[in-house]
Amino acid sequence: MARTPAKAPAKKTPARKAVAKKTTATRASTTKAAAKKTATKAVAKVPAKARKAPNKTAVRKTTKSAASNSSAILTLRHIAETISDVHELTKRQANEIIGQVLEVITKSLRKGDKVRLSGLGILQVRKRPARMARNPRTGEPVKVKASKKVAFRAAKELKDSI
């Protein structure tokens, strides 16, 4: 059996012990500080999670059920595919046509014109005046600037068909 070498000479041993003491002291202080931080974070987060957990699960359940009950979403890409099939165009040409239609509608709304799409409805820009509102957290009154919004009014044919 091989023997382990004897302890190092006395001169080197104290230096190693001193270095070891310093590193263990710094490790202990950093671990204590880290432990305090994690403990305070854990204490602070536990009640918040306990309060919010039922609400989140209720919201998730409702969104999942709403998603399962709702039908598929019709996008511009789907519309372009349908147009390309019906009119024997490429999908790229159909996308360009739809893009141009949207540009024309956007430009006319910027001017302030009404856009009437027969059978669908009317798009128009409405001005919202400046008003006073309240911050729900503090109850402090807040000024809300005047703004513009796009309003859509469905046509009678659309309402009747639904």
Automatic annotation (TrEMBL):
<protein>
    <submittedName>
        <fullName>HU family DNA-binding protein</fullName>
    </submittedName>
</protein>
<dbReference type="GO" id="GO:0030261">
    <property type="term" value="P:chromosome condensation"/>
</dbReference>
<keyword id="KW-0226">DNA condensation</keyword>
<dbReference type="GO" id="GO:0005829">
    <property type="term" value="C:cytosol"/>
</dbReference>
<dbReference type="GO" id="GO:0030527">
    <property type="term" value="F:structural constituent of chromatin"/>
</dbReference>
<dbReference type="InterPro" id="IPR000119">
    <property type="entry name" value="Hist_DNA-bd"/>
</dbReference>
<dbReference type="Pfam" id="PF00216">
    <property type="entry name" value="Bac_DNA_binding"/>
</dbReference>
<feature type="region of interest" description="Disordered">
    <location>
        <begin position="1"/>
        <end position="69"/>
    </location>
</feature>
<dbReference type="InterPro" id="IPR010992">
    <property type="entry name" value="IHF-like_DNA-bd_dom_sf"/>
</dbReference>
<feature type="compositionally biased region" description="Basic residues">
    <location>
        <begin position="48"/>
        <end position="63"/>
    </location>
</feature>
<comment type="similarity">
    <text>Belongs to the bacterial histone-like protein family.</text>
</comment>
<keyword id="KW-0238">DNA-binding</keyword>
<feature type="compositionally biased region" description="Basic residues">
    <location>
        <begin position="9"/>
        <end position="20"/>
    </location>
</feature>
<dbReference type="GO" id="GO:0003677">
    <property type="term" value="F:DNA binding"/>
</dbReference>
<feature type="compositionally biased region" description="Low complexity">
    <location>
        <begin position="21"/>
        <end position="33"/>
    </location>
</feature>
